[in-house]
Amino acid sequence: MILLKRLSFWLALLGVGLMVFLLRGQNVKVANPGPVSEPPRSPYLRTVASTGLIEASRENVNSRAP
Question: How far apart (Å, rounded) are the C-alpha atoms in residues 17 and 24?
Answer without folding.
Answer: 11
